[in-house]
Amino acid sequence: MHGMLQRLQRRAERRLPALTRYRRPERLPIELHRRRIYIVPTGFGIGFSVLLLVMLVGSLNYANNAALLLTCLLGAASAASMLVAFRSLDGLRLSHIRAGHAVAGQPIELILALDSSRPRDAIRLDLGSTSHAFALDGHTTTHARLALATTDRGWQPLPRLRLWSTWPLGMFRAWSWLHPDQAVLVWPRPEAAGPSPSAPAADARHMRLHRGDELASLRDYRAGDPQRHIAWKASARHDNLMVKDFEQPQSHPQWQLDWRQLRGMDNEARIARLARWLNEAQAQRCSYSLWLPGNEIGSGSGPLHYARCMNALAQLP
After folding, report:
1. Sheet arrangement for strand 130-136
2. Where, by residue number, does the polypeptide cross the bilayer (predicted)?
């Protein structure tokens, strides 16, 4: 029964212009109102209506006032449930959408911020085959999380979202469509294997100090230095205390990832290799720079620098 109702609903959306007027993308925020909320009886609601009809015919046929009163009360309750289902969506507001990060072929997480001026229960949000149930307390913003399937890198527009509820008795389904005018950026898929990038020879700009075991130099005493590191003989020849310094220069190579070095490869192969090199540099906590056509990103490291480089790769034509 449920599958048949779903097919009828999809067919009605194709046939009736009133049900498809919100297929076009809309700017955020999106607020639901009475002209865009639709209600149909569920399978349980249809069966209950048939039961009420049988009860009505029986009570009238046998002139049973108690049965007639019960039938009227149940009918009033079902009609009230239809109003409650409508009010569960009326005035609901989608304020903004945030997206996580994912490479092509992996689902990307969407975080939808919804708010309302009054409490609401048992609301469901559908995106393709995924669904998320939530409730609103009427005071704070509720965040619904959905997974969006991805296939290719670059900007991917958001599909239509269905917001629906069968609260409180499950007799009626109230639903509405949300089609935000927004896109998410999907990162490129790195290649599975290949050569590693060549790091330039270490120079003075790529050296940093590390603590070793051999004496490197003498320096002035600083508060907090251990007494065992004080060079007493050398301090006797100076006005200040001298401390043995065991810090020595250590090579800290910088990776220069350059689009121009990957000649003979098509654009997508270049992007996949650079994406893999970015992953390797991030895993090894190296400092790296990235040169792309029309975009040169200086040296850096860390999650923010990695995300900036991956975003630049994803937006290449």
Report:
1. 38-41, 172-178, 161-165, 120-127, 130-136
2. 37-60, 66-86
Domain extent for 215: 209-251
Please count the structural domains in the chain: 3
Q: Output phi, psi for 4, to 5 deg.
A: -65, -40
pLDDT tens, position by position, 98-128: 999 999 999 999 999 999 989 999 999 999 8
Residues 165 and 97 reside in one and the same domain: yes
Q: What's the pTM?
A: 0.71
Pairing mode, if any, of strands 254-258 and 287-292? Answer: parallel
Residue 2 lies in a domain: no
Question: CB atoms < 10 A from the CB of 184, how many?
Answer: 20
Do 34 and 75 fall within a single domain?
A: yes
Q: Is 191 part of any domain?
A: no
pLDDT in tens, 281-292: 988 888 999 999
Band of the pLDDT at 12, cuts 50, 70, 90?
A: low
Locus of tokens 């860390």: 302
For 133-153, letters b (16+ CB in 10 Å) and e give ebebeeeeebebebbbebeeb
Selection from 44, 53, 125 nearest residue 88 by Cα: 125
Highest mean pLDDT, choosing among 20-34, 250-264, 286-300:
286-300
Is the CB of residue 24 less than 8 Å from the CB of residue 159?
A: no
Same domain, 275 and 225: no
